Structure formats: C-alpha cells, structure tokens
Target: GntR C-terminal domain-containing protein
Amino acid sequence: RGFVLLRRPEGDEIARLIPRSEGEAVYAAIMTDRANGRLPQEVSEAELIPRYGAPRGVVRKVLMRFAAEGLVQRQRGHGWRFVDSLETDEAVNESYQFRMVVECAALRQPGFRVDRDRVQQLRRAHEDILARAPGGIGTDEWFRVNTAFHEMLAASSGNRFFLQAVRQQNALRRMQEY
Model:
C-alpha cells in the first residue's frame, strides 16, 4: 500500500499543485495586505468578513491563528490589533539585533544540548538549497529551513523563553515574505 514518487517536487511546486483551504487563502490574503500596508493595525471581524468574502468562523479561526503566532492581540470589547511589525528598515535591524542577542545567549546556557541528528538534517537541507540553481527554491522552502535552524538553536538552550522569543521573531519575519 502507498505510493512511490516518480520525482521529487522542487521548490514551492507542492504548494502550487495542492489547492489552499479557504482558511489558508484568507490567512495569506490578510498577511499580504498587512505586510503591504493595505490593512490597518486595528481591525474587526465585521470589517474582515466582507473584505475577504469569508464566513465569520473562518475569519475568527484565522485571527486565532495569528494570535497563536503572536501577530495579533485581541482588543478589549471587540477588535484585533496587529503587533508592531517589521515595516521599516529600522525595525528589521532591531529585530536582527534582538535575535543575535537571544541566540548568542541561548548558546551560552549551561543546559545547552544539541540534537546532532537534527543538526545534520538541517545541514543537509541547507546544502540542498545551496546546491540548486538560483531561483530553484521557493521562499516558503527557504523560510521553513531557516526558521527550523534558528528554532533548533533556541530549543537546544533548554529554556522555553528563548524558543518563544525566536518563534515570535520568525512569525514577524514570515509577514515580510508576503
């Protein structure tokens, strides 16, 4: 039982072949609009429903996903507020500086223990990307591998708060990809 791949999909090919769910499409549309300044920092479900033509339940699930990723906060009463994002060069530089401090501190933790198998897996993934011709990888694949590397470093510290900080920075960076 099962199947055999005739060839390995390249770059973002899988994403192009498999249709997005309604929730994924709304997530991507909101992320794109926010990243490009077409969506204000404060929004309500009532505003988003007609804008994206999605049912309330889908919009709410998407906002809850953004909240879980640390990208929005629920307002008192009603509405949602996007956290400060990497909209300016200054914010991007501040984010890099923050991540350097956090990751260097994570590496110096007394409980730092690296999973050598995971390191080798990530090294192979990076080498695979570097071996391809320019344009041979999609931004989703690069982002996924890069994110996994930085989260592995933070997780190896044994301190959940380093991992939480790196994940939040990665979520902000994901918005830049849209």
